[in-house]
Structures are given as C-alpha cells and as structure tokens.
C-alpha cells in the first residue's frame, strides 16, 4: 500500500480533517505525514507497524489528558432560593451575579463527571457523579436531598417572636436532627470526566474514603459489574 493511500484511509477512519490533526492522532510530526504523502512508493510492513504503534501511544496519551478535566475546586457555596421556594441552588447565577459565577454555572450545565461536597473545614462530605444529566442539575439535586445518615444533635430555638429566656430559666434539650446536605456543605469541587471512567472514579473515591463520607451506597468497579 502506498503511503498516500494509507494516510487517506486512516484520515477517513479516524475522522480527521487536516494533516495536522491526523499527525496528532498518529503521534507523529506534521512533516512526517507530509513526507509519507509525497512519497511515490509503498510503505514497508515495518513502517506501517511503526505508524500503528505510534498511533496507539498517541491515543493513550490523549485519553490520559482527557479522562479528568478539573472545572473548579473548593468553590464557596452561597446558596440561594430556587423559584417557588422548591429548595436551594448552590449559588446565585442571575443577571446580578458575577461573570465568574455565571460562567461556572454554564460550564457545569454542559459537563458530566464527578463532584465533591465539603464541610466548613474543607473535609469531604459527599461524592457524587453526573452521567445522564449535567453536573449542575445533579449537584443541586444532591444538595437538597434528605439522607438519614445526616443526623447531628442540636438544640432547637424558637423562630417566632417571643421573649428570650436563658438556659437557667428554661433549659432546652439537645435532640437528634436530620439535616440536608445544603445545611452541611460549604464548598464543592467539580471535575469533567470521560464517560467511560465516571462510574469507576466515583467507586474509587467512595470506597477509598468510606469512613469519611455520607454516601450510603458502596459503589463497585467495572470488572465487578461485568462479572455479575
């Protein structure tokens, strides 16, 4: 097979639209691609094998670069009411919000991947994934979701207008109180993740920090799910 024929077939199969793009996919320089294309001779089996090996190496390198893409880390939560008081949004993204906040919301709305919520000390509280819907939608759902494990002991104080009485006159007893993630989380991080790695990355984080997180479900890895 002539070099020009091989390059044409590879370009069509790989969906590249330029010599530079094809060179990147094959893991060679653009000059090498041009040299191959201009040759009026057949490629040797060794040259074809070398091109395929370089292409595989380039594909692995590209996959490593695109598997995890940091979007934002330890962003401060400033919750605000949703329409009709149906819960909270993580932060204000209205026309009054900063360009930074609105830009972040747009990226989250168009990304899938993994997110982490942290408490006021920056300790991880909850890890979640977004595959079938965007990070923005999934994170806000998780932010408002009730979970039985989110229980702490609190003293309940009246919120109606009444006279204050100190504890030595009226002692209020601490009691278990179920909280939502929106009451506990102060920061979040979000990462765009390649679709094929989202489940396994979530499983790694949930299993690796099982004693620190509020997650109840113990996620499994791909090979375990396949074996069933």
From TrEMBL:
Pfam families: Phage_CI_repr. GO terms for biological process: negative regulation of DNA-templated transcription. InterPro entries: Lambda_DNA-bd_dom_sf, Phage_CI_N. GO terms for molecular function: DNA binding. It comes from the Bacteria. Residues 7-41 form the Bacteriophage CI repressor N-terminal domain. This is Bacteriophage CI repressor N-terminal domain-containing protein. It comes from Pseudoxanthomonas spadix (strain BD-a59).
